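During the no-cost extension, the postdoctoral fellow (Dr. R.K.) reprocessed legacy sequence entries with the updated structure-token encoder. One reprocessed record is reproduced below for audit purposes.
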Amino acid sequence: AIHGRCAIVLKESASLFPNNLSAYGASGTLHYLVSSKGQVNIVIAKAGGTMQKQMPGKDCSHAQPILQAKLVALSGNLYIVLCTFNGVQIHNASDQRQLIFHHLPADPTKPDEEVFAQGVAGFGTDMIAVGASSGRILIFKKESGTFSLADTLQGHSNPICDISASGKRLFTSDDNGCILVWSHKGDSWDLKTFEGAGSPCSTMAVYKDYVVGGYGSGHIRVFNFVDGSLVTEITAHARWVNAIDVNNNGLLVSVSEDTVVNLWDLKEFSLFHTFSIPNVQLCESSFCRAPTTLLCRDTI
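Re-encoded structure tokens follow.
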């Protein structure tokens, strides 16, 4: 059975963007990150209680909100990555000091198109991958206590929605539903493509040889990225899938704008449990630390 244990009320409600909850646990401390318009709600939970603080994004506001805030751990250090309409910001999580602000230039041939960053994943021991509205993947490398742009990958023709990483592979999805699998081999990348069907692949998770995509159409699709096959397709939700996550036991959680939380068994490709949280907009779910700890984030 699934039982609710507690709720943390944030100082401000979460913005209704996919993947709007990031969680990281280590040494008895849990960090939660949620974007709210032009700032980030930071929650630090320990055995003695919780502490909340807020961090504004550079040049961000209600009209220019933070699209995604992500906690990334590299070599024992924790960083906060912000995706905005102005570019990419990377901060130290300990003191919120900004390490890099990478501006995304507008395309002069497309003056009416919005420019933004979206999708974040830590990669290897010293790299962070961030997606852009141009379809490019920006690779930032940690060097001498700061970050610099080390590489740019081009494979998508549409804005990036989400990025995941596992081992030496990057998984990227876009607004057309396309998923690319990038395998890092020395100074080069091998590329495998799962074509989209027109609906955005807004969120992804990786489990063993599977990459799982959640789509704006309400579908969940499971691909085997080793042999390139579509393993299964599920009509999972009635509305947009805002987030999915998977734990080490093969339990997949999906949340949607239909207010439903579904838990799926990836070993059997079956529905394990379902429940609804009425009258709220669910924008994220995540397993944190223990495989039985499930976090769901709503906008109320």
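The longest strand covers residues 66-74. Residues 177 and 196 are 4 Å apart (CA to CA). The remaining legacy entries will be reprocessed before the final report is submitted.
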